[in-house]
Here is the input.
Amino acid sequence: MTQSAAALPGNLDLYLHVRVLIALILGLSVTRLVSGIAGLVQHPGRYPIWPVHLAWVAWALLNVVTFWWFEFRLNQIQHWTYGLYFFVCVYASMYYFLSVLLFPQDLDDYQGYEDYFLSRRRWFFGFAALTEALDVVDTWIKGEAHLRSLGLDYLVAISAFILLSAIAARTRNPKFHLLFALGAVAYEISFAVRHFGTLD
Here is the structure.
């Protein structure tokens, strides 16, 4: 028996069923984000664009793609329960909710993306912080060894992100928001390169 085959859970059909549902949810997230970006390209003058908003769009897209990539490690879970299945569905759904918050149906009630984003910052950063907290649980579910392999900086970064999200939810300071967004994108790229180059 190969190593990959040995890693597959006892109930392979259930595992594949869960993967399909995760793929559907994350696919909707990617579609929303990419469609939103395409809309900005198609109608650049319709609503004023804000670099901070674009940075968070990039962060969300990176997170969704990375999440989809490393959720393959769920194949190491031997026994699935409804609670675990429900948790994974909720976790994946957080990304869709963030995607919808970044690109609403319309901005008719706002002066542009800066006005919209700042008016909904408590919702966005609240759910962003919750998503990062759920990531720790998701990582732990894959095994304590996997959690330890990410190093102490992983937990420090998550804690810092949650703290900065709490500040971002309260302040409208554009410089703080820009630095936070750019830092989040930079860390996401660094983390993906360091830890998820392969799934071996």
Remarks:
- The chain has nine helices and no strands.
